[in-house]
Amino acid sequence: MSCGQAQWLHGYFDGELDAARAMEFEAHLEGCAACTRALAVQEALRKAIGAADLYAKAPASLRSRVRAQLSTPRAVFAPRGGVRGFAAAASLLLVLFGAWRTVAWRADVAERDVAKQVLDAHLRSLQLTHLTDVASTDQHTVKPWFVGKIDFAPPVADFSSEGFPLAGGRLDVVGGRSVAALVYNRRKHVINLFVWPSEESDAAPRSGAQRGYAWIRWTRGRMSFWVVSDVAPSDLEEFARLISRS
Amino acid sequence: LADPDERARFEELVLPHIDSAYNLARWLVRSDAAQDLTQEAMLRAYRFFGGFRGGDPRAWLLKIVRNTCYTWLDSGRGSQDAAEFNEEIHGVEEATPESLAIAGADCERLGRALDRLPPKSKEVLVLRELEGCSYKEIAEVTGLPIGTVMSSLSRARRKLEQALGADERKETP
């Protein structure tokens, strides 16, 4: 395929030549067996690529991760504006959680590990179409459902009037133990509230973000509470306040 | 970028191209890291969205994806694959429409052959054949002068033909 016109073959094949050049090459093709054959090779190659279904579409989980990250400004700017975000969020929390004496932010390793598991449980619940075992907006249906399935009674309340309707409940596993997961909606977002018995004494809320999801945790009355969602951090804080007061 | 209008504009213009972003990342880094790199690139795009002055949002995003992937590849975190196609080692055989038709019937084989090409060849093929980019768009994404896109594609296609042929000989010695 060593002919002077061969350099135009790919441009012709891709429809990228200007009209004059394309006509010229077409005229050349009629008399050049090498170029005609080379063009047939390209057509066969393109056909093979088309048939091979090589396009890798973005997995749904990636799509939702990116979306979640866009709706969490703190996470978006975390790597660079960490200190500023920290300060802003801390002052916001101080107002919202005025009742609590201290707001501790520094999560230790163990906490981060639980946070990761809670987040995994949250993501699993979204992905496996296994959001709820008992789907009901009625707290009097959801609460009794847990009886006999776990050895504690999670507090269950509906907050429809505050904009956080109860969607249901399910059993989940965090840190190897069965926990109660209560599912709430906030507009189109899902909030998971995880509850399990704890040996720790009451602890003020701490919050954090991982992979674009925000979480808030606290301990109260020998129960550990974790809320996790991709809602705006201020919404999650409002929700945590509702739960902790109920 | 706290402005909700900016975010809505980003979601309308850039976010729909996440498939293109992932597809390019997947072929360039050929590892599970493609998901994280796509996410990182989308985030970067979101941060830099203020600097997007109209034009083709897909090409603009793919340029960021490409840079993110090359940074990652250059850091040595990608697998240094010894099996990368090398025409001097593997030898060259003229492809024919018939041999390509046979090779094309085996989807996995085509994927393998494409995977073994060097990133610079892979990217122009992915952009042209999978993404349907024009030469102008390819130039924008890769930073190649538009006049050299055609010859880059020509070389990349030849490499792909040869990689397919090499794969065939390996299977049927």
Count of extended strands of chain A? 7
The rounded distance between the terminal residues' Cα atoms of chain B is 59 Å
Structural class of chain B: mainly alpha
Major protein interface: A-B, 38 and 47 residues
- What's the helix-strand series of chain B? HHHHHHHHHH
The mean pLDDT of chain A is: 82
Structural notes for this entry:
The complex is a heterodimer of chains A (246) and B (173). Chain A is of the alpha+beta class. Helix content of chain A is 46%, strand content 22%. Chain A has a seven-stranded antiparallel sheet, sandwiched between helices. In chain A, a hairpin with a 2-residue loop joins strand 5 and strand 6. The N and C termini of chain A lie far apart (81 Å). Chain B has 173 residues and is mainly α. The mean pLDDT of chain B is 84. Chains A and B meet through helix 1, helix 3, helix 4 and helix 5 of A and helix 1, helix 2, helix 3, helix 6 and helix 7 of B.
In short:
With 246 residues, chain A is of the alpha+beta class. Helix content of chain A is 46%, strand content 22%. In chain B, helix 2 (18-29) runs antiparallel to helix 8, helix 8 (119-130) crosses helix 10 and helix 9 (135-142) packs across helix 10.
Give the SSE layout.
The complex is a heterodimer of chains A (246) and B (173).
Chain A lengths: L8 H5 L5 H13 L1 H20 L7 H11 L2 H24 L12 H19 L6 E2 L3 H7 L20 E9 L2 E10 L2 E9 L5 E8 L2 E8 L2 E7 L3 H13 L1
Antiparallel strand pairs in A: 1-2, 2-3, 3-4, 4-7, 5-6, 6-7
Helix pairs in contact in A: 5-8
Chain B lengths: L3 H10 L4 H12 L3 H16 L8 H18 L12 H4 L6 H8 L2 H9 L3 H12 L4 H8 L3 H26 L2
